[in-house]
Amino acid sequence: MGAIRRDRPGRPRHRGASRAGRLLCAVLLMAGGVAAADVRVPASRAEISLSFAPLAKAAAPAVVNVYTTRRVRARRAGSLFDDPFFRRFFGGAHPFGNAPRERVHNSLGSGVIVRPEGLVVTNDHVIENADEIRVVLADRREYSAEVVVRDSRTDLAVLRVAAAGQRLPHLELRDSDTLEVGDIVLAIGNPFGVGQTVTSGIVSALARPADGVSDFSFFIQTDAAINPGNSGGALISGDGRLAGINTAIYSRAGGSNGIGFAIPSNMVATVIRAAVAGGKVVRPWLGAGGQSVDRELAKGLGRSRAVGVLINRLHEGGPAQRAGLRVGDVVLSVNGREIADANALKFRIATLGTGGTARLEILRRGQRRALHVALAPPPEEPPRNVTVLGGRNPFAGAEVANLSPALAEELSLDTARAGVIVLGVADGSPAARVGFERRDIVVGVNGRRIGRVRDLGRVLKRQAGQWRIEIERGARRLSVVIPG
Questions:
Q1: What is the 8-class DSSP label of residue 173?
Q2: Are residues 44 and 65 both part of a single domain?
Q3: Euclidean distance between CA atoms 246 and 192, whole angstroms
Q4: What distance lies between CA 226 and its chain's CA centroid?
């Protein structure tokens, strides 16, 4: 079976360009990013001989290599002095020099300069846990870099290089909504660490889901070869602008099988705005949730097409409710863009900045209506009240907080969820022995519903012969009984 892969090792595979591929190259340069009506088939041998070279030459200087270094401390496996009996006498010391050794792990990805002052966009997984980051340009200039924004929800990060006032080559962003299936694109990056490489292909699909890559499963799919090391590199459209950030491949063995995924530039723009504005990504909060309209739902709604999102929950007092959205409404479009499914609704709202309003077209009892929803940030209500629990109870050693829409957004959770969430568990604590995990949501204790941290604190103060605990872990609800 194939799998979605981000940046894993594999063997390079070489394939020659087909005659059909060369014809497509010619189509790109003749189209030059203009309207679809102007695209035509090559009419002469001279046109077929046209090259991608001018496009690649203009774009490649803005695509960089991102080198990261991570230092870890590790002991030699099987050491006699790792035995607990000997550690009782020697403590943490190793009298014969078998102390933990520091090891250096290096990794390589790609990035794109998007501002002349030195802002670089890459994948979050490329720089994850890095102690040192260096950026190397195509002309071999090398700079140290610092992280300005990390956004695990989109798998994007923005770096700033120490360019000492130099103006660096950069790429302008294209409106990714103007891409069409069949448009020719170039992928530029450093696959397998062989050096900067340009590959060509077409847009194979739009709004494509790719589970496990990011929270916003709404990707540009391309057959331009994308391999490990390409992560964070550029997907360039025919007009030389940045259409997306290459981030994942569908692969059986780690190499390119002609199915690559890029984060659309309209989503990339949101993290760039955050970097320019101060370093924190804040997305609009709809305050509503729903399910994709499938064939059965469409039939029940009297619809001929299975598109849209059926609203099944609303946050009390949230923007959607204040705008007049109701449970049972079907969202058909946002600002004129069709909403095919729940992923599309999440993506469309996320790419809008806070402030102003969004126009939602909905279907209610067979009638189309328009609503204007305020684009407000998720509220910090209730306040987090972060608390480390103690005492003689199963939660001792757990750090918990009230789950607000703002905190849910930070933790990549459904912002409609509420309750008390576990933020961390101390090693060796009662909470760790019970098996609590980060992001567990406490639902009930001893038959009492837990809505706030204070509710949990009150229940834990009471002595109990046993503890009956209910938690939500992902999509599952777990129950456990623990002796008091």
A1: B
A2: no
A3: 14
A4: 18
How confident is the model at residue 39, as a pLDDT? 63
Question: Does residue 317 sit in the same domain as residue 425?
Answer: no
Nearest CA among 290, 323, 282 for reference residue 406: 282
For residue 261, give the H/E element and its range.
Answer: strand 260-264
Cβ pair 451, 421 in contact under 8 A? no
Question: Is the same domain home to 276 and 298?
Answer: no
Same structural domain, 63 and 198:
yes
Range of the domain at 404: 387-483
Helix, strand, or coil here: 174?
Answer: coil
The percent of residues above 70 in pLDDT, for the chain, comes to 83
Residue 25 has pLDDT above 50, yes or no: no
> Which token pair is 168?
């660096």
Residue in the structure block whose two tokens are 């279907």: 363
Nearest-5° Cα angle at 127, 124 to 133: 145
What CATH code is carried by the domain that includes residue 187?
A: 2.40.10.120
Q: Which residues are catalytic?
A: 125, 155, 231
From 88-97, 203-212, 342-351, the region with the lowest mean pLDDT: 88-97
Between 76 and 255, name the one with better pLDDT. 255
Residue 334 has pLDDT above 80, yes or no: yes
Q: Looking at the 3D structure of the chain, how many domains does it have?
A: 4
Count Cβ atoms below 10 Å from residue 202 Cβ, excluding itself.
Answer: 19
> What's the confidence (pLDDT) of residue 310?
97
Instruction: Answer whether residue 380 is part of any domain.
Output: no
pLDDT of residue 435 exceeding 70, the answer is yes
* Cα–Cα distance, 229 to 187 (Å, whole number): 12
Domain shared by 264 and 359, yes or no: no
Q: How far apart are CA 153 and CA 413, in angstroms?
A: 10
Question: What SS3 class is residue 13?
Answer: coil
Q: Helix, strand, or coil here: 413?
A: coil
pLDDT tens track for 47-105: 666 788 899 999 999 999 999 998 876 655 555 445 554 444 455 555 545 556 667 77
Q: Is pLDDT of 11 > 70?
A: no
Domain boundary, last residue among 263, 281, 299? 281
